[in-house]
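Fold this sequence, please.
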Amino acid sequence: MARNTVVGNISSFVGNALGGVRGWNNLAAWAVAGTVAYYLWIKPEREAQREREERAALRRENDRYPDVEKVWPRPDPQDTGLIRGKVKDPK
């Protein structure tokens, strides 16, 4: 098969996959679609991520006790009776 035929077939396939529009119309359509996608999906997500990072930075900055753990300790299942067997001696 000749090289020109393969390139032509690939070009034809890509053109048909993109809706069959060729030339400047195709480029303009993709530019509009890309712009709309940016303003509807990408930009709002980036702004939301930036706001989350700023809020987290403010929380870290305003934390008076950064070395204190913020979660409750989990009780030992042996002491609470969730695991059967020999119970530990109370301290």
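Residues 79 and 87 are 6 Å apart (CA to CA). The mean pLDDT is 80.
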